[in-house]
Amino acid sequence: MLAASDWSRSTAETGLTSQDVAVRLRRDGRNELPVARKKSLVMQFAGELVHFFALMLWTAGVLAFVADMAELAMAIFAVVIVNATFSFVQQRRSDQAAERLNALLPRRVTLRRDAQVVEIDASGIVVGDLMLLSAGDRVPADAAIVLNRALRLDTSMLTGESVPVDVALNDHISGGTFVIDGEAEAEVVATGMNTRLAQISALTTTTNRPPPPLTTELKRVVRTIGMISVCAGVTFLVGSLLLGTSMSKASVLAIGVTVALIPEGLLPTVTLSLAIGAQRMAHHNALVRHLDAVETLGSTTFICTDKTGTLTQNEMVAGALWTPSGRMTVDGVGYGPDAHLLPEAGADRSALDALVLAAARCGTGRAVQDNGTWIAMGDPMEAALDACARRLGIDVDTDRRTRTEVARFPFDATRKRMSSVVEEGDESERVVLVKGAVEGVLSLCSDNGDEASCRTEAERLSKLGMRVIAVARRAISMDASLPANATDAEQGLRLVGLIGLIDPPRPSAFDAVMKCRRAGIKVGMITGDDPHTAFAIGEMVGLVTDGAHLLLGTELPADIEALGTLVDHDGVIISRATPEDKLHIAQALRARGHVVAMTGDGVNDGPALRASSIGVAMGRSGTDVAREAADIVLLDDDFATIVHAVEQGRATFHNVERFLTYHLTDNVAELTPFVLWAMSGGRLPLALTVMQILALDIGTDTTSATALGAEPPSPHVLAGPPVAGRLLNRRVAIRAFGLLGPTEAVMSMSAFFVAFLVAGWRPGDAFPEGQTLYAASGAAFLAVVLGQKANAWACRSTTLPPWKLGWFGNRLLVYSAIGEMGFALACLGVGPIADALENRFPPMLAGLVAAASIPAVWFVDASWKRRQMRRRSGQASPSS
């Protein structure tokens, strides 16, 4: 921080010397925010190798190696490494996309050093430097104003307040704020780690992020399946030894059972499904920084949204004009010159034109065209007035050339108005133009005959959520001297009229709020703005309902439980809220069991974004601190984008449930040969070897599971309450373990025994070995492969059979099925692969039985779905 001895009158004129700068750089370091340490790529990859499933497979591989089964051990190790690589690559892609957003402080800044004006990289600023600030600059460090020329700042990134702040001499300003208007020289008082920005950033990084619902549920599923696998493996090992089986063979059986029960491809498939969801969200302008956030959005039960720029367009519009002779509505969008003019009957158009021109000339902001798009240059309110003049056909640029501004008295918070003195081109007279708060202007008008109607109109516009300004004027003789100050200029005024300005709601906001309501998601607005404006916007976008809850940030209780009870209402609007209020609201709602999505763009929003279940930052208007704390970044800052993301999040949850069912189904078919072997006392040969099981899980299942993870959202995905509950639920268990899995197991073992019968085996005979056993094992293998292809289509829906969905609705599933069938045929027909798997092509009759797995799976699936539909219909329409 700056010490008193660090600054003197001489440096105020010349700036610091190069020697001073070098000393302070060594003392304080560079003007850079602290960067959170991230795991190295090596550690990230290592993390993919040591999750619960991976550790189990490593153990199985080691046991296989100890049992002198090096080929099996290498196959298991390869599965672990391939899965880890797959998950690592997908997560890395997401991280790289997020890293492209990093750009908080300005790269260059203008300073006075060594008695010269220089431009340097902002990271080289030191305490004591003299910054030269002007409109359009972002303040790069904390500073104190030493010379002020009507400086106005946008501090919304820190405070959430959208109204520009007027800065006075000796005021302290914070890094990260934006200069809207005016000029100033400011002495740097803190840089880097010592700035207010850094302190907020540090608070953000220390706020604990709650675990995503999917992560929690997956851990539970993994542990459950893992423990079942281990217990089954140990049971088979002990049972085999008791039956007199050698330790080597018993180990193979135990490893086989364990591997059969572990869905090796589950976690990589989850990762890819989340990555596909993230990619689809990106197409809707939602950038996912953490893949888990894709599914978390689907579980969202409460969305806390900002007003400015999220529900609204973040573009001021002068939409209402009033003069004593009549009104006009100006229906326009943004800062362009096009609009629909709706004058009141009898309104004096010349008076309305004079009102708008006077307001546009009393200020420096304007609307300009940049690469074909109209944007605000300077104060957005003044740019809106300039745009309004153009919409009325007024050539403001020509007026500026013909009527010169000869004096200007900037806006300040005490007067709540500003004024400008313009001189007619023919030098016939000068005119004082004044605009500002209604009270501040009306009190200076000498002719108050219209005061009552003016106040009534101002109150009406305020209730519509508009920011109302009054405009007045007076003429000065050319013989009179120019006003020396604002007091001299702003007297004896005549009221010209009122202008109502508003940041209008986005066209998509109303429909998006209605979708949330139909989806069972509560929506609340948290804003730093005026309560009248917040309530009006809430009405426009459909937030306000009967029994609306409008709260002030100053009224919120400190007790978390009481706060949760107060704000846990759909359509709640909290105005004059601070970033600290947002943090407490997120904590209170989470304490009540909500999955909370919180939006934010300011630096102070970082802790609230991290404390919520899912943080949503703004991409256009947001700061890097907010983006770094967020899980999702809205590239268009649009509330409707959140709803699109929620839709994809729900679809992703359903997709995870789909391919979990798919994975667990063939686990039943894979385990069955081991169960029958044990029941036969070891006399029945294994229908499937451990190597075949690995080939099934990785070679013929993974791509179909991935395709199910890419299933597009159904049209009715937002028609019900938020997705919640357990992945391994009753429906999944019934379908996988009670219906589809047993069907595949029956068809697989039937094909296995038919292959024996074709070879001449009869019940009671010793089971054949060699090529006959290989062919029978191939029949069982093929039956599982074909049954799983049918299962993939069955898992696309929990209510409709495949033929009612359309065979090509998921083209990736079609391509994966073709590829997997090619792999399966290679496993049966390519010599070295077939030898490693110990199988061959089955005889024709056994092959036909294997092919019958397809209609068998579909018949069982369709029968269950039909029964479920009838049950639902019966519940919805009770019989008389």
What percent of residues are in strands?
A: 15-25%
Helix content: 40-55%
Low-confidence stretches: 1-11, 97-106, 876-880
Number of strands: 25
Enumerate how many helices there are, as a single number.
Answer: 33
Distance between the termini: 81 Å
Strand order of the largest sheet: 8-25-24-23-9-20-22-21
Radius of gyration: 36 Å
Name the structural class: alpha+beta
In short:
The chain is α+β, with helices and mostly antiparallel strands and 880 residues long. The chain contains 33 helices and 25 strands.
Q: How would you explain this protein's 3D organization?
A:
With 880 residues, the protein is an alpha+beta fold. It is 50% helix and 17% strand. The protein has an eight-stranded mixed β-sheet with strand order 8-25-24-23-9-20-22-21, sandwiched between helices. Helix 10 (266-283) crosses helix 11. It is elongated and about 125 Å long. The protein starts with 8 loop residues before the first helix and ends with a helix. The model is unreliable at 1-11, 97-106 and 876-880 (pLDDT under 50).
List the helices and strands and how they pair.
Layout: H1 9-14, H2 18-28, H3 41-48, H4 52-66, H5 70-99, E1 108-113, E2 116-121, E3 130-134, E4 142-154, H6 156-159, E5 165-166, E6 172-173, E7 178-190, H7 196-206, H8 213-242, H9 247-261, H10 266-283, E8 286-288, H11 292-298, E9 302-305, E10 317-323, E11 326-332, E12 339-343, H12 349-361, E13 366-370, E14 373-377, H13 380-391, H14 396-402, E15 404-412, E16 417-423, E17 429-437, H15 438-442, H16 451-463, E18 467-477, H17 486-489, E19 494-502, H18 509-518, E20 522-526, H19 531-540, E21 550-552, H20 560-567, E22 573-575, H21 579-591, E23 596-600, H22 606-611, E24 614-618, H23 624-629, E25 632-634, H24 639-679, H25 690-700, H26 702-709, H27 730-758, H28 770-794, H29 802-805, H30 811-829, H31 831-837, H32 844-851, H33 853-876
Parallel strand pairs: 9-20, 9-23, 20-22, 21-22, 23-24, 24-25
Antiparallel strand pairs: 1-2, 1-3, 3-7, 4-5, 4-6, 4-7, 8-25, 10-11, 10-19, 11-12, 13-14, 15-16, 16-17, 17-18, 18-19
Helix pairs in contact: 3-5, 4-5, 4-9, 5-10, 5-25, 8-9, 9-24, 10-11, 10-24, 10-26, 11-24, 12-13, 20-21, 24-26, 24-27, 24-28, 25-30, 26-30, 27-28, 27-32, 27-33, 28-30, 28-32, 28-33, 30-31
